[in-house]
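Researcher: Next entry in the queue.
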Amino acid sequence: MDTARSVNGAPAPDADYSMLLDDQLCFALYAASRAVTQRYRPLLDDLGLTYPQYLVMLVLWEHGTVPIKDIGGALHLDYGTLTPLIKRLETNGLVRRDRAADDERTVRVSLTAEGEELRTRAADVPAAIGAAMGLTPRQFDDAKRLLRLLADNVSGASGASGASA
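Model: Structure for this entry, 165 residues:
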C-alpha cells in the first residue's frame, strides 16, 4: 500500500489505496469493536445491562445527575437513540428522570439506590476487559489516544472526501 503523504500528514491526492480487505483500517476497527463488545456481553448480562446501557451508567456513575443532552454529548448519541435506553434503565429501577425546576425543557437523569448499588457489582468489568485485551498499559493508553484522534479527525472531516477507511 502506498503511504505517500503530503506535508501536513494527510494522504497525498494521488496516493494508491488498496482494495484488499486486510488493508482497510475501517475493517480492523470494526473487527476489534465487535470482539470487545462481544467480550462485554457475558459480564453485562450478569448485571442486566446492554453495552449501550452500561455506557449510560458509566456517565451517571462518574457525574451523578446529568441532563439527557449532556449524556448524549458524552456518548456521541442523539436524543432519539438515548431516550429509549434511559427509559429501559428507568423501567428496570436503575435511574429516574426529572424535569429541571428552572427549565421544564431540560430532563435530568439520576441514579436510584439500585443504580448506585450496581456500580459496586460492575467494578470488576473494566479489569476483566483490560485483561482480555492483553495490552500493556502503554499500548492501552496509545490505543485510546489514537482512537480518540481518529474519531476527532473523522468527525471534523464531515463532508470532506478522503482515503479509504
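Model: Helices lie at 25-45, 51-63, 68-75, 79-91, 113-122, 125-133, 137-156.
Researcher: Noted, moving on.
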